[in-house]
Amino acid sequence: MLALHILPKLNMGGSEMLTLDLCKNAFRHNLTVYLLTSGEGELLEEFNKTPVTIHIKKRKHPIDYFYIRYIRNMVIRNKIEVIHTHQLVDTMNAYLAILGLNVKLFLTYHGHFLFNKNKILPVFQRYFAKKLDANIFVSKHLLNFYLEKHKISRKNCTVLHNGIETAKFNTEYKQSLKKELNLSSDIFLAGMVGSFTYGRDHLAVCRAIARIIKIKPEFHIVFIGGRVERYKEVYDQCFDFCVAKGISDNVHFLGIRKDVPAILKQLDLFVYSSRRDTVGIAVVEAMICGLPVILNDLPALLEVTDQGRVAEVFKTSDADDLFLKMDSLIKNADERNKLSRIANSWANENFTIDRHIDNLLKIYQS
């Protein structure tokens, strides 16, 4: 099957990382992928390493005649059977490009879109949702959000969880993280992955670990994620809290890292606290690594952990509950080992890129 995926840019993000893993592995499933993007990004080099042909065509307007014509010519020239978009504006352009052609059109919804005060976009959203061959949602929680908030029709909607390329977790790390941080090999090291935005709740974690460190001074935690300029106060609040509580030596702000798989493999515990989430990719990656996971009770996070069966769950934004659950888990090695085993088994059964591609092909063909 010949499929064209369209991404706005090749920046670091959930839809981009999923598409990157798809591009790396699609050929093993008899799926030929072409990629069209209207802008470059920090992942361009990684995409260029895949077997996929990348086309870059700037889109100057939300609805761009020359962009539409480029898509149409590309579809006809390469005999594309399926177009798969990841953003509404690309969907609208692709829809116009394939009018009169026997080509299927799919849109994956990766996040919550409230549209704020824009009254036109929700109308377009509902209109095109009816026109697509399938609306694909990365979680049941996200599908329910669109059904309730945007009143889209359930008729051609389906859920397809993201997939993770497990091979990237098989590489050995070049340098010990504990050595990099000048820590002794016997310290207990936890970690959380996620940029500092209002969607994450790093502060609840900081408040909980401030109490942990008082009773277990050898406890350390790493935060992997950038200080986003737009939300800089989120990062600053956490950093200042750690300074004020005197725990800065035990809390390590690593910023954006490209060696996340290697870092995860060196942790003793994965912590995740969020205010809003659609799928929890960081949680899935931690489970793939075989880490015991503690997370809050958001519907999307419960969904990827079999309703909390394969993880320790605390009440959202409740630092006291997180402290109690984390303290118990740190003290109980047997429970951590149990969670590691069942979480790893669950993730490998449900969230690998191969399973994702197999299920995606079923959607394409249905």
Describe the structure.
By secondary structure, the chain is α/β, with parallel strands linked by helices. Helix content is 43%, strand content 17%. The protein contains 15 helices and 13 strands. The chain has a 7-stranded parallel sheet with strand order 3-2-1-4-5-6-7, sandwiched between helices. Strands 10-9-8-11-12-13 form a 6-stranded parallel sheet, with helices on both faces. β6, α6 (140-149) and β7 (157-159) form a beta-alpha-beta unit. The model has no long low-confidence stretch (mean pLDDT 93).
At a glance:
This protein has helices at residues 14-25, 44-48, 65-78, 88-97, 121-131, 140-149, 177-180, 202-215, 232-244, 260-264, 281-288, 299-304, 319-331, 333-350, 353-365; strands spanning 2-7, 32-37, 53-56, 82-85, 104-109, 134-137, 157-159, 188-193, 219-224, 251-255, 269-272, 293-296, 312-314. The chain has 366 residues and is an alpha/beta fold. Helix 8 (202-215) runs parallel beside helix 9 (232-244) and helix 11 (281-288) crosses helix 14 (333-350).
